[in-house]
Amino acid sequence: MAMNKKSKRRLVAMQRILIAGILLFSVSLSVILMFRDRLSLLLVSNVQTELLDITRQNSMYVDRKIAGIFSSMEYVARDLAWSRDGTARRVRYLTEVNNFTRVGAVDIYGRGLEGPDIRMTDFPGIKLSLRGERKVVYTKRTAFDNLNAMVFSVPIQMQGFIMGSVYGILDVNALKTMFNFSAFDGNDESFIIDAEGRMFVQARKWELARYMDSYLAGWQQPDAAPELVRLYTKVRQNRYGVERITMPDSTQYYLACRPLSSVSDLYVLDVIPTYVVQERITGILNSVTFILGIMLLLLLGGYGYSEWRQLKSQERIYDLAYSDALTGLGNLEKYKLNMLELVRKNQLKALAVIVVNIRGMKAINDFMGYKFGNTVLQLVADKLKAGCREGESGYRGNSDMFYLMWRGCDRGELERRLRELLDGITEVYAHKEGSRLYLTAGVYIVRLEDFVSEEEKRKQEIASAVEGQLNINAMPVEYGGMALDVDESWPMDVAGNARLAGKQIVQQNCNAVSFFDEKVVKKMKQEKALEDGFQAAMQNGEFVVYFQPKYDVRGASPVLSGAEALVRWISPEHGFLPPYIFLPLFERDGNLETLDRHVFELVCRQLAAWRQEGRQLVPVSVNVSRRNIAQGRRFVDEMERTMAKYGIDKELIELEVLENDASVDEDTLITFLRAIKSSGFRIAMDDFGSGYSSLGLLYGMPIDCLKLDKGLFDGWQEDMPDSDTSLVRHIIQVAHETGRVVVAEGIEQKYQVELLRRFQCDYIQGYYFCKPIPADEFAEFMEKERL
Ligand code: C2E
Ligand code: MG
Ligand code: MG
Fold first, then answer.
1. Where are the domain boundaries for CATH 3.30.70.270 in the chain?
2. How confident is the model over 446-478, as pLDDT tens digits?
3. Whose CA is nearest to atom 35 of ligand 1?
4. Which atom of ligand 1 is least distant from the CA of 747?
5. Burial level of 166, CB count in 10 A (0-12/13-18/19+)?
6. Which GO terms describe its molecular function (predicted)?
């Protein structure tokens, strides 16, 4: 059951961790995805920048090259303006430095100054240069060599007067070497285009070149493809632009474009298929996602591990705080917690709180050692736990106090279950240890409705009355809905009632179950009143001594040989009270020693009075409670002072000490008895045979008399076999052998007297001869007996 709760708690915690984990996972995942998205955008723009960079490089190279070509040509043109000498050599020089396939010079009519005549219509660029501009024009299949070429031309002029033009023809393919082809793993293609979209310098891949050529035709026109329009607009505004275009066959490319600065209307265009970019980006994104994923997994793992550790340590703390280390049962804190939880849940109408106690646990610990005591506690705990059903639980309080929370409120059923459980424990223990272990159980049936506050009840009544009036669902008021008027101390109050019920058990040496009821409370209250009334009773002289005669049965007929002083409380309030009612109460708060001294004084005073009256006195035994043993010599001194006060001899007083029990250790008892003995008192050991003492104990005890407990004769019957009386016979024999006399107590029957006489018992005290009687009656009795 406890296990169930533990695993339930664990399950809840796991659920919590799982939910938090899922939450963490989804948050992190969306962050990663968002990041991936952003990164992808960043990468795209990065790629675009890179692309533009390549374009810039390319355009710079081309510009520089073109500028170089032009300046070399202008240099030659200037020379030619001054003199034609060496024209052929200079023109050759131009061919060498510029890789021209052909170089020439013409006058304004196209007549060859160097090289052949040309038709102006074939070379519109040259025609334009005659207007004073340097010019480069792309010409497909030039008139000379049928080459795709760039025709460079610069005017030959002097003092603003144009004399002709120097031209050079450059195979476009020569420019290709200037382009950076290593970018994007060689997937980048560079072109130079003019305003109409014609290609000056073609790409390496002629297929793409052809493709682009037709796509780009008229790219600056307003009716061109929208992405081309956009590209051109950007180029015009910023002197650069990048666009993603989709070709008719739906392949996609990035186009980056820049105008050349050395020649108007020429543009460097870089083309790269989007899949190249995409692959690259996806590659980066995948690695980044992978790393983030690993980090997320580590994070989740770390989170899960730390939560698990925390759960474990919480469980450990919980165990330490709420369970009993020895038995594994819940402790009192846990009991309180569960009781309050029960109230909070408000489902049960009634339950039983049971306090189970092991009889003689202290003696077990003292005589058998704590280790053994612990195994007893464990055994009992295990059995109690096993005796709990679904929804019930067991706890261990202090020492040998166990608490059970059981369902149900049927006394008969509860008693049957409890008896079965306790008897089961006794049986198992007997089987294991060969001796008897008994337990007591005090039961308090908690009817939770008793704890509903008056206010709450009133509210419910009003509510039900209103419902009744309006006739809406005139249902009975459900207890389940009512708030209970209990506080933190309630669980222990309730357990206190169960404990009280347990304390009421009077039967000895058996398992016993007792239910709390109002009578029990009343009795408790009475006991409390008695306890509280001690001082007043002492002052008012309410304690009186009765005397029970004791007979010497050794002779032919019994002879009165003494008496035992037995205290009685004659209370105006409570009536006549025998000692078993009040002595245990006084034992609890230390009044017993006071009472013993008081009784001793009353006896001495009585003896002195009888002597005064001239009566012949018999020895009187006075009971000394165990409480006095610890006082040792002090007690003896006080007794002696009292006797001296009344002039009573020690032969007239015998002290009765109870046989030892677990509360006094043997050495202390022997020291005490020696102190009494050495001051000359006779000592009787009372109630011998009722408890733990053994005959062996007799040898070391300085006692004169053994008082056999009534219990030894209780099982006797007339005409029983000898074997049934052999114990008593044996005790008497050993007592005599060790020089003690024997008194048999509680003798009521004639056959008992006869048997005891046969066994050579020395004295008999019992109702058979006389009950305890008041002092004046006893005085008369003495007179009578003496006659
Ligand atoms: P105890 O010292 O063993 O006293 C004998 C008890 O047995 C007395 O009970 C007596 O009335 C009872 N008794 C004697 N003969 C018979 C019999 O034939 N049948 C039955 N059923 N009972 C018999 P009582 O007077 O009720 O005292 C009970 C116990 O209280 C005493 O047992 C003694 O231990 C204790 N006690 C009595 N007076 C004092 C006292 O002044 N001081 C102390 N410390 N204890 C006292
Ligand atoms: Mg006695
Ligand atoms: Mg006795």
1. 318-516
2. 887 777 667 766 776 666 665 554 443 333 333
3. 579
4. 18
5. buried
6. cyclic-guanylate-specific phosphodiesterase activity
